[in-house]
Structures are given as structure tokens and as C-alpha cells.
Automatic annotation (TrEMBL):
Highest taxon in the source lineage: Eukaryota
PANTHER family (UniProt xref): MITOCHONDRIAL FISSION PROCESS PROTEIN 1
Cellular component per GO, a single term: mitochondrion
GO biological process: mitochondrial fission
Family, similarity comment: Belongs to the MTFP1 family.
Species whose genome carries this gene: Brachionus plicatilis (Marine rotifer)
Protein name: Mitochondrial fission process protein 1
Length: 166
């Protein structure tokens, strides 16, 4: 029998990239409408909420089975609330808020530098968009790691969850 862990569609597949839709929107901010940028945040937060629902449902089912088997555990509802809260906070910061802000500032700074160096408006928009897009893969893992470290020192101990980084 194979004992590999269950595939987490929201963390271990390309579905994870939906959480970064807002970074694409921020990269293209100078070239698309404000409505389109906001729509990318809608996609990202939709991803976050779907992951929270998924983690909550899986936790509740697992904890309910443990509770019914007589294993002394905390209430399935309490454990589910803790896991869902952890997921919501981590995903909101690691997938949407911090990366979106970071890409926005990278694009703004690159646009400012290009403008100061006499780049034409069209060239400025294209290059700052490329710089923003190129920055996305460079910021993902450091932000994820930093969010885990901060949460391991703050919210996780406060709500009684194990730390993520050992």
C-alpha cells in the first residue's frame, strides 16, 4: 500500500498560481484598467477562500473521525477554526497582500528609474511590466518563508498550532 500524503490541489499543483494572479495584475497595472487589476485580486482572494474551505473541510472530517473513535482531542469545530484561521492569514499575506505590494513597488520604482533616464512612455510601460513579471518568481519563496516564520512566532502559538518551520 502506498503511504504518500494526499495531494493538496491548492498547494502542490498549478492551481497554486491562482493566488498570484494579483501580481500579474500589478505587473500590468500601467497597461490595463483599474477594473482589470481589481479583478486579478478577486481571482487571488477567490483562491485563498477556496483553500481555506478545503483545509477547513479536511480538518473537520479528520478531527470528527478522531473524536468518534474515542481519541482524546480538542473539539473538531475548534481545531477546524484554528486551521482555517491559520490558512486565511497565511494565504492572505503570503499570496496576496505582501506579493501584490512588492510587485507594485518594484514596477513603480522601475518606471520611475526608466522615466528619469528618458525612456519613452510606451517603452517605460513595457519594461516596467517585464521587470514586474520577472520579479514574481524571485519573491515567492522568500515571502512564503518569511510569512511562516512570522506566524510561527505570533499567531500559531497564540491559537495553539504547531510551528511550520522546524
Amino acid at each position: 500500500m502506498d503511504s504518500k500524503p494526499d495531494l493538496d490541489i491548492f498547494r502542490d499543483t498549478p492551481v497554486r498560481y491562482l493566488g498570484y494572479a494579483n501580481e500579474i495584475g500589478e505587473s500590468f497595472r500601467s497597461m490595463i484598467s483599474q477594473v482589470a487589476v481589481r479583478a486579478t485580486y478577486g481571482v487571488s482572494f477567490g483562491y485563498v477562500f477556496m483553500d481555506v474551505i478545503d483545509k477547513g473541510k479536511k480538518t473537520f472530517v479528520k478531527e470528527k473521525k478522531l473524536s468518534e473513535s474515542g481519541v482524546e482531542k480538542e473539539s473538531p469545530v475548534i481545531k477546524t477554526a484554528k486551521i482555517a484561521t491559520d490558512c486565511l492569514v497565511w494565504q492572505s499575506f503570503a499570496s496576496v497582500i505582501i506579493p501584490g505590494f512588492t510587485i507594485n513597488r518594484i514596477c513603480k520604482l522601475s518606471s520611475f528609474i526608466l522615466q528619469k533616464n528618458g525612456a519613452a512612455l510606451r517603452t517605460n510601460k513595457i519594461l516596467s511590466t517585464i521587470i514586474g513579471l520577472g520579479s514574481i518568481p524571485l519573491i515567492i519563496h522568500p515571502i512564503d518563508h518569511a510569512c511562516h516564520k512570522v506566524m510561527d512566532k505570533t499567531i500559531r502559538p497564540m491559537i495553539g498550532l504547531e510551528t511550520h518551520i522546524k
